[in-house]
Write a structure and sequence with these properties.
heterodimer, A: 113 residues, mainly alpha, two-stranded antiparallel sheet, 2 strands, elongated, B: 190 residues, two-stranded antiparallel ribbon, 6 helices
Chain lengths: 113, 190
């Protein structure tokens, strides 16, 4: 089904691909915060995160977060692509993760853990 | 008028890529909000849609270049450890900030926040570019998806702003400098 709302046709489309990208981005952002807190609090994890010595643990923290983001994106995309997904829950989860990641990267809050 | 190589690269990272990204954010936010809201009366031309897609891709590239140059070029100079007994800490910005109670928070809060929060920007804008390229004008039919993309672009703007602000302040109190000197203009004798 399609409607003509503007000068070009706007079609109904499966929103699963977009939903997968949005949720994966929320997960990726959250992983930056979680890995950063772990590297700050757990000595062994901090050492494990030093992928490139001049940059220190930040190299591992960000590389791992990016890998989790891309993997979760690939998995979600495979499951949801071509399907209609109920966006309410997905968007709420993604924005909650995004908001938490913004807060948890703030050192005085991260130090509470 | 001279500048050191490290100062120049820090300038390119912050005032070049970073500032350009911040400027670009406002354009993307306005366009996504104004043109792609449900029931928008103005038509979305195919050329406009292609332009915004390309614009978001360029923004994503800018965001990645900014965090990668920051994390792997500038940050190692910032956190360099001075040899034991070093008195002049001007070439070791992190240690210079940590040496005084008046400046230590610029590192413990400023840099600690900046170095992590900045990475939210490329992840968010890459997602925004991917979703826009995939769905384009169809976003007007799914306001929740369009609002989610808008929120991620907004947070990427905030994250880049935090990183930019602290980057500028850190470079004010403990500038990254060193390396070969480049003479920009040969001055006249006073």
């Amino acid at each position: 089904m399609s409607t003509r709302t503007n000068s070009v046709r706007v079609q109904d489309f499966p929103n699963g691909g977009g939903a997968a990208a949005v949720l994966a981005a929320g997960i990726g952002c959250m992983m930056v915060a979680i890995f950063a807190i772990l590297a700050d609090k757990v000595g062994a994890f901090k050492s494990l995160m030093i992928f490139y010595k001049p940059t220190g643990p930040l190299s591992g923290v960000t590389t791992c977060a990016i890998l989790v983001w891309l993997m979760s994106w690939a998995i979600l995309h495979r499951r949801w692509s071509g399907r209609m997904v109920a966006l309410g829950g997905v968007v709420t989860a993604a924005l909650t993760l995004l908001g938490l990641s913004l807060l948890l990267t703030f050192p005085p809050i991260a130090d509470l853990f | 008028m001279e500048i050191t190589t490290r100062s120049l690269l820090t300038l390119i990272h912050g005032m070049g890529f970073g500032a350009l990204y911040l400027l670009a954010c406002s354009g993307a936010l306005v366009e996504l909000y104004r043109r792609y809201k449900p029931g928008s009366l103005r038509p979305i031309e195919i050329a406009d849609e292609k332009f915004l897609g390309a614009y978001l891709v360029v923004m994503a590239a800018l965001a990645w270049i900014t965090v990668l140059t920051g994390g792997y070029v500038i940050y190692p100079w910032y956190r360099a450890v001075p040899p034991p007994g070093t008195v002049d800490l001007s070439g070791f910005p992190q240690r210079l900030l940590m040496a005084s109670p008046n400046t230590i928070a610029w590192h413990s809060i400023g840099m600690e926040w900046k170095e992590h929060v900045a990475w939210l920007a490329p992840i968010s804008i890459t997602m925004a570019a991917a979703v826009f390229i995939r769905h384009g004008r169809n976003l007007t039919r799914h306001p929740q998806l369009r609002n989610a993309v808008l929120c991620f672009v907004l947070v990427s703007f905030v994250a880049a702003g935090i990183a930019g602000f602290f980057g500028a302040m850190l470079n004010k109190y403990a500038p990254v400098q060193g390396g070969p000197t480049i003479e920009l203009v040969h001055g006249e004798k006073p």
